Amino acid sequence: MSGLLTVEAATTLLYSEALALDERRWDDWLALYAEDAIYWVPAWKNEAETTTDPNAELSLIYYESRAGLEDRIWRLKSGLSVASNPLRRTTHVISNVLLDGTGEDGSVEVKASGVTHVYDPRRKGSDVFFGLYVYRLKLLDGGWRIAAKTVRLMNDNIPAVLDVYML
Q1: C-alpha–C-alpha distance, residues 11 and 98, integer Å
Q2: What percent of the chain has pLDDT over 90?
């Protein structure tokens, strides 16, 4: 849908994001995001619809900029996040990547499906989170960056702590 971004390039970016999370390369992961990137995991209002306004309704996770993500990663790296100590081990699986439109600002909407297998060494158990991802990718400084990521978490009955690196 865009003469600049191909499905292959978008898929590579999404795979790179997933692998950076799995390998705990936090700085590489953050570098994929634009400074003003929005990261949002809306809550479900009912069985058919999620919240639509993160400023007025409940969200599972919401960061208005990369600075919020940077703060979260700082807490993970520092060990000061009791809820994430020890860190869970993850394996992300991304599929069904589709370019879904171009914005007036040249950004491209990309949709994908995602599954993350999460192992919790504290309780020696596993969880699986799955959902639909909607990205807005923007060309910045010669490379594509994530300007927004929304995760529609399909299994929102969360048996453990939920964090950005698990989605």
Answers
A1: 9
A2: 81
How far is residue 148's CA from residue 17's CA, in Å, rounded to a whole number? 13
User: How far does CA 149 lie from the centroid of its chain?
Assistant: 6
The strand ranges marked E within 6-122 are 33-42, 59-63, 89-102, 108-120
Please say if the pLDDT value at position 163 is more than 70. yes
Report the 3 state secondary structure along 103-123: CCCCCEEEEEEEEEEEEECCC
| CA torsion angle 78 118 149 84 (round to 10) | -20
CB atoms within 10 A of CB 69: 22
- What lies within 8 Å, CB to CB, of 115 at 6+ separation is 92, 93, 95, 128, 129, 130
Measured CA to CA, the distance from residue 10 to residue 8 in angstroms comes to: 5
